[in-house]
Amino acid sequence: MRTHRLVAATIVAALGVSLAGCSAGDTADGEPVTIQFWAWAPGMDVAVEQFNSTHPDIQVEYTDAGGGNDSSAKLITAVRAGNAPDAALIEYTALPRMIIAGVAEDMTEYVGDVQDAFTEGTWQQTTFDGKVYGVPQDVGPMAFVYRDDIFSKYGLDAPATWDDFRSAAETLKVEDPDATIASLSTDAWGWYAAVAATLGEDWWSVEDNVWTVNIDGEGSQRVLSFFNDMYNDGLIAADPILNPSYNSKLNDGTMLSWPSAAWAPGVIYGVAPDTAGNWELSPFPVWDEGDTETSYQGGSGVSLISGSEHPEQTAEFIKWLNASDEGVDLLLNESNLYPAAISGQESAISQDPPKLMPQQTDYYQVVADISKNTRAVTWGPNTDVAQSAFTDAMNAAVQNGTPWVDVLTATQKAVYEDMKKQGFEVREG
To answer: How many CA atoms lie within 13 A of 260 on its CB side?
Structure first.
């Protein structure tokens, strides 16, 4: 019986007794409470040093645990071995897996006082089935990053809708047959999930311990069919991004946009610095005229980890780091992150724009405006299965010329069957 695989609410109930026995004011003979914090973003050591200097009763010891899958695997191992940290940075895509594995603890009772520091969409990034499992640290509001010089050369504006995007692609292909408006890589499963979310689609959702898998819903089918048609008409590529070939096209002006998120300019500048001054960022295209809501791609939050002997003090540090003026200022200026907190996004407005677009002085205002109206992406407990199934099916579809919507069907089946096998109560949407 796989009790360790039960959904978040069941885990919380099982752990509630042990949490109740931990006094928030526990100290060791009047000595400061020491808590362990794992993360990987640059500047975290500076933030910890600042916190320690102003919180003599709580001292944080920081470990750079590496990011992504490495960090998640280490956390699971550490919890099972009984030597886990008190707090850890966890990517939003990995958080459901960490909840199910009994790694991330329910923090609802400790963090309600900072909820208003975030937009509703941002707060939902760490909320599942009505319970909060972390405080958001940084977000990636989806945005359209494009070669404004080339668009302007051919009389094109940044596309407001995806129909505008297609129209611009058609014009650009006529003007320069070697140019491509964008490449949507076959492994971009998370991007497609986020774009589907702008149409109200949740690939995973959970309520009352029951998961729903809805990867092949009507909205997702609309997304895949639209880009499939563009690909068949030679208007977009489906090649890997950020490899030598892709980077060469960024440099020579034949890859003309990256529908991505607010973090993209730093990535492009890292591989095509000589193109600085030619790019701009605009709001992400919408599907229907009048829509304003977009979604997120990327980002992380800080969670309370199971087994912490000092949950209240740990939560105090987590809230300071991600919701206080001092903390979010450090995230912005030391870690070079786009803060999840509203105050951090407002502070960013006065910052210089990224090096890729020094001429776009309203860059951070545009990003802040985007972030005000975002819809959280609900990730599930087996995103690794979704990633593998989607990528394999998409590669086959591109190679064989079969419909891309079939990729959704294959991914849905793989994810649903895996969750059933693991013992989840799950249904198909």
So the answer is: 23
What CATH number belongs to 3-139+297-361?
3.40.190.10
What is the Cα–Cα distance from 383 to 404, expressed in whole angstroms? 19
Instruction: Give the three-class secondary structure for 316.
Output: helix
Q: How far apart are CA 71 and CA 92, in angstroms?
A: 13
Residues of the chain with pLDDT > 70, as a percent, come to 93
Structurally, what CATH architecture does the domain formed by 141-295+378-428 represent?
3-Layer(aba) Sandwich (3.40)
Does residue 17 surpass a pLDDT of 50?
Answer: no
Cα separation of 284 and 315, whole Å? Answer: 34
Do the Cβ atoms of 354 and 269 come closer than 8 Å?
yes
Tokens found for residue 14: 């099982």
Alpha-carbon span 131 to 206, nearest angstrom: 11
Higher pLDDT, 342 or 7: 342
List CB contacts of 306: < 8 A, sequence separation 6 or more: 15, 79, 84, 102, 103, 104, 105
